[in-house]
Amino acid sequence: MTDFVGHDDNMRAFTAAFSSGRLHHGWILAGPRGLGKAGFARNAAKILVDPGGQYEDQIERGIHPDVITVERPLKDPPKEGEDIDPAAEKKRSIGVDQIRALQNRLVTRPGLSDKRAVIIDAADDMERNAANALLKSLEEPPAGTYFFLISHSSARLLPTIRSRCQSLRFEPLSDGDMEAVLRQAFPDMDTESLHMLARAGAGSPGQAMEYAGLEMDALEKDMLAIVQSGDPSNAIRAAMAAKLTTKAAQSKYEAFLRRAPQLIAQQAAQMNAQSVESALQAWEDANILAARAIGVSLEKQSVVLQMGTLLASLQTHKDR
């Protein structure tokens, strides 16, 4: 198991509660997607069920009997003997049948430890009936059982669930922690690419790793080139639109729509007071454009060109 990086305050709060002997049975790990909440939950589970470090590999691979993870099931489960495709489409929600199956497991004793950890990833994905069923376990938790509810939008959780759990809020990682996480994940990556990937992740290791899988480094360079030059001939914008509007580029197109407003915000943070107001308007326009592009399926080429124009406008703002 690799070392867990970042969120030191949250880990200190959890370990202090554990050491006190008064550890709460329910924890909500709240914050935007991709910050490492699932990794934190696995490390907290390790502290609980495997303090001696005997079963690290089993916990990491998800096969330790006392660490139970509940997540959205696959839409089309693999046939017997087939490997699970990590990119396979999942159902939209965690169903009540999954929570009831979990509760059936909880009536038995832990297998290798005197404690058990249950990770719900993500609790926001539970159907209403599933959430109500889980509430019963939170109200009367089995002895030695601890729940970790990963939440990307904790306002969507039932108020009664929130009231029965401790909450830990997760914030974006620092640049140094981002690079440490990415160095673990990509030990052979060159330093320049690592810096660019860390910057593109905007404090979210999950987002950075998604971008690495999509080979977004060339697109990041193009966006930065537009910001730096203003792209007066529109050549970079046009080339970018050609790359992003094919059917095969859908995932990269969606990643671009998330990344471009972030890049504008990063640039705005470096501007002086006279320029920042216009840059923040560009950021707001970029967010609106990105939301509409997905929500009402705007024409892709037009969207990419408009987003490129918002990036190019930052050159004007910087010159003021």
TrEMBL record:
Q: Looking at the record's lineage, which domain of life comes first?
A: Bacteria
SUPFAM superfamilies, per this entry? P-loop containing nucleoside triphosphate hydrolases (SSF52540)
Pfam families linked to this entry: DNA_pol3_delta2
Q: What is this protein called?
A: DNA polymerase III subunit delta
- Source organism per entry reads Sphingorhabdus arenilitoris
